[in-house]
Write a structure and sequence with these properties.
The structure is a homodimer of 410-residue chains. Chain A is an alpha/beta fold. Helices cover 34% and strands 26% of the residues of chain A. The first copy, chain A, has a domain at 3-173: 3-Layer(aba) Sandwich (Carbamate kinase).
């Protein structure tokens, strides 16, 4: 019998009725496959716990927070196990460490170092459903850790890898991956199939259905992912290695990120090492810099612009101002009213025309481009936040994503 | 430096303000002693979790319940650790299994088999406050268990024993142990000192401040207990071995239990083995029988009466009726409107007059005694529930407990 890992997020187990629905779905799957289920905390529970801790201190100690937050997944595991028993299934429950998930000691953002899935495998082979707490593990020295961004999705993929599972199905509150956010483009279509690489670019630029880290892990180990709804019966989106996709699609989807801000340093002396000196303190402060742009210089000076998460803008400004003084650059400007729109597609590599189509469509619609950045399979632009959603719609249409011509082929 | 174990119950950590108060108290103690703190789930949390599980199934599987309920203590540990850090203390947190608490595999009512306190001791010796989850442990095969009745108090005493602590202080929502329930006898006085044995009888008959199991454990290992309030500064009640108490007191306290019901079997043939046949199915069903009374027989028949927890009355009736038919006894009667009042005191052993004083005082007040039972240091009577509180007041006065004459000497 094949092994499959299911992962259910917080909204999928938000209340007793939904937990029952999850149990029924698992019961159906268990008729033909061995199922390990990775589960998140009930929606709202993690925030409730963080709220409690913040009442004690504004920045609670990470080790205690991990212990506190890990209770959320633990409760979900127990409740889901009970619901599965109601369906007549035998179950075995596993906290992160009981499932053999060993992490490093970085509380709040631990990395999975190793999984020994022997006990989970034994439970599956004995015909039981393995119900595993997502988002948590234990450090080598026996402290409860949480694995930070990507959370339970990453747990599920890591477990699927360790179990050599046939696939990892991520059940969520959307039908799958769409060519754009359907709240912005009502005619965005469900993608049947997408490559790991495309998925990473989309996740990174705001699709938010799957975290980059989890897709990266799946790609590394070649675990097929399926993203599907826990509320409907659709087949969702399969995330697969490149070779399984046929050619033919240039652009797969459009994504939008609103959470960034830009910092511009004017009149930066165009000397070797200056850029490095500017970014050193920012990197050291752990601020995530996304786009970096530097134009060719004029009269020995250039403008340097970069984007950071909005929440880090104040810190980034302070550091950039100090750095600017240090390298004898001009004034530092910032803007939070921006958004990033990205066009993603594996086919882009061999289609130089994408950028042109993109810029022409935006120009025709009167949308001003503030910054441009590209990666192998992505072109990103920064626009004013008020034009962002229109930009997404314009591009979705320009690349024919609403029509079957642009559909990816499964 | 001496080691002391503090235990704080659910009401003591019910909200953030109270958790802060606990942290301040621990901080004060930590100036002169090494402190390990055992903590319960926040008041109401365990019931909330049980409620969730009961929505899924009326009698949830015990293993899953243990996993679910154990989250309550885990959250308290994390929150208290944060609060202690706010007080400038270094802490180390321990779930049951991390504190080395190994139990048998009886979910929901596991017994502590063994404690290896090496990690807790190391934390204390390194100058950290050890914050330990009460009520939980882990079975030999790695399953999370809860230790049932007596819960966190038992954890605390067991840990104090394993650490050879100077004493175990149980912080609760009352000032200490009183000579009677102050809601019934407003002039009941706080006992400065009480023996383990008296405490067990009081706990058993409804004082409910400490569970028998925890007192038994303390007695076995000679760990001095202190019961005191987490809300006031009083010194509470010390629970000590017999030899530390001076003579002089006959009766220490009066207790009241309302949770029982009685079952009477009429005309039981007075033959050897009949009583055993009647109680076998009841014992097998796990029903807790408290008082058992059988009068001398008349014409080869006797009446047999016993008390059971009210919640088990229906089951006990069914089993008693079957057994009565089996042994050819007469009809079975039951009554739930009873209460048990007990007079407890170590001095009673050498004072035969206690029973007489008791019965005379009750008779004078027109209170009808339905059943009488005695143990070495206790006389219990069963009365109608509507006369129960009056009986407590009458006896409290009859034994002079309101006055200093009857006060136990510390």
């Amino acid at each position: 019998m094949k092994i499959v890992v299911h992962k259910y997020g917080g909204t999928s187990v938000a209340d007793i009725a939904r937990i029952r629905a999850v149990a029924r779905r698992v019961a159906t799957a268990a008729r033909t496959e061995r199922v390990a289920v990775v589960v998140s905390a009930q929606a709202g529970e993690t925030d409730r716990l963080i709220g409690l801790a913040r009442k004690l201190m504004p920045e609670p100690h990470a080790r205690d927070m991990d212990l506190l937050i890990a209770t959320g997944e633990q409760a979900s595991v127990a409740l889901l196990s009970l619901a599965l028993r109601c369906e007549g299934l035998a179950t075995e429950t596993f906290l992160g460490f009981q499932a053999g998930i060993v992490t490093d000691g970085n509380h709040g953002r631990a990395r999975i170092e190793h999984i020994d899935p022997a006990r989970v495998r034994a439970a599956l082979e004995a015909g039981r459903i393995a119900v595993v707490a997502g988002f948590q593990g234990m450090s080598f020295d026996g402290r409860v850790t949480t694995i930070g961004r990507g959370g339970s999705d990453t747990s599920a993929v890591a477990l699927a890898t360790a179990l050599s599972a046939d696939r990892c199905e991520i059940f969520t509150d959307v039908e799958g991956i769409k060519s754009a956010d359907p709240r912005i483009c009502p005619d965005a279509k469900l993608l049947k199939c997408i490559t790991y690489e495309e998925m990473m670019e989309l996740a990174d630029t705001g699709a938010k259905v799957l975290h980059t880290r989890c897709v990266e892990l799946a790609a590394k180990h070649g675990v097929p992912l399926v993203v599907r709804s826990s509320f409907t019966e659709g087949e969702g989106t399969r995330v697969v290695p490149e070779e399984r996709r046929l050619e033919g699609t240039v652009v797969t989807g459009i994504s939008l990120t609103k959470g960034e801000a830009k910092v511009a340093i004017r009149k930066v002396p165009d000397r070797i090492g200056v850029t490095a000196r500017i970014f050193k303190p920012i990197a050291k402060a752990g601020i995530d810099v996304d786009l970096i742009l530097q134009n060719v210089s004029e009269d020995g000076y250039t403008d340097l612009t970069f984007t950071v998460p909005k929440g880090d803008l104040r810190r980034a400004m302070t550091l950039a101002s100090l750095a600017a003084r240090d390298v004898e650059a001009g004034r530092v400007e910032a803007a939070g009213d921006i958004a990033k729109v990205s066009v993603v597609g594996l086919g882009m590599r061999s289609h130089a025309g994408v950028a042109h189509t993109m810029f022409a469509a935006l120009a025709e619609d009167g949308i001003a481009i503030q910054m441009i950045g590209t990666s192998e399979i992505k072109v990103s632009i920064v626009v004013g936040i008020h034009q962002a959603e229109r930009a997404v719609r314009v591009l979705h249409e320009a690349f024919g994503l609403s029509f079957s011509t642009g559909a990816p082929v499964a």
